[in-house]
């Protein structure tokens, strides 16, 4: 199964989702993330939120969806958008699309921003577990 997590900048929500899904769903799936206007780097608070639960995404790089491997894109099973619905990219695909709408934590500041990253991380983790159970991908 091939899963693509999409958002606008691929600097926070989709990066966290990619790391969590790779860990939770394991080798039964190929997971990537991308954006339509990728940022230069992954947001430092996304890195920090993931470090709190033992994940190192500090070397992850935002990617443009069109630059992903053609074989991956040709064999997509799910495109999951994780940004606010009105901002989420639309891909021309006949594959299953899921919308997991999360507000952009980058727009916040200080402690409020840190907390938003944590909450989104936790909600993503639960949604990925639910997805894995629903598709019988978990042991």
Automatic annotation (TrEMBL):
<dbReference type="InterPro" id="IPR023485">
    <property type="entry name" value="Ptyr_pPase"/>
</dbReference>
<dbReference type="InterPro" id="IPR036196">
    <property type="entry name" value="Ptyr_pPase_sf"/>
</dbReference>
<dbReference type="GO" id="GO:0046685">
    <property type="term" value="P:response to arsenic-containing substance"/>
</dbReference>
<feature type="domain" description="Phosphotyrosine protein phosphatase I">
    <location>
        <begin position="1"/>
        <end position="134"/>
    </location>
</feature>
<protein>
    <submittedName>
        <fullName>Protein tyrosine phosphatase</fullName>
    </submittedName>
</protein>
<dbReference type="Pfam" id="PF01451">
    <property type="entry name" value="LMWPc"/>
</dbReference>
<keyword id="KW-0059">Arsenical resistance</keyword>
């Amino acid at each position: 199964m091939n899963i693509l997590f999409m958002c606008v900048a691929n600097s926070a929500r989709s990066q966290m989702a990619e790391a969590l899904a790779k860990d939770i769903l394991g080798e039964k799936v190929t997971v990537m993330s991308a954006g339509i206007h990728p940022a230069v780097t992954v947001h430092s608070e996304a890195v920090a939120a993931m470090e709190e639960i033992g994940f190192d995404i500090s070397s992850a790089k935002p990617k443009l969806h069109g630059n992903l491997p053609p074989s991956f894109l040709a064999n997509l099973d799910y495109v999951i958008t994780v940004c606010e619905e009105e901002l989420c990219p639309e891909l021309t695909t006949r594959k299953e699309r899921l919308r997991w709408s999360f507000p952009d934590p980058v727009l916040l500041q200080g402690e409020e921003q840190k907390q938003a990253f944590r909450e989104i991380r936790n909600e993503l983790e639960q949604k990925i577990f639910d997805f894995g159970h629903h598709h019988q991908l978990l042991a």
